[in-house]
Amino acid sequence: MELLVAQNPDPESRLPYLIRVPVGAGLVFAVSGTWPRAKAVYCHPLPPESWPDEPALVETVELRSCTRRGAAIDVVAARARENRSQLVHTTARGRHVVFWQSPLTRKQSRPRVRTPTARAARIPELSIVVDAHERYAYNFSDKPVTTTRGPLACGDYGLNIDGQLVAAIERKSLSDLSSSLLNGKLKYQLTELAGLPRAAVVVEDRYSEIFALTFVRPAVVADALAELQVSFPTVPIVFCQNRKLAQEYTNRYLAAAHRWFTEQGGTPTAFEPQD
Question: pLDDT band for position 118 (50/70/90)?
Answer without folding.
Answer: low
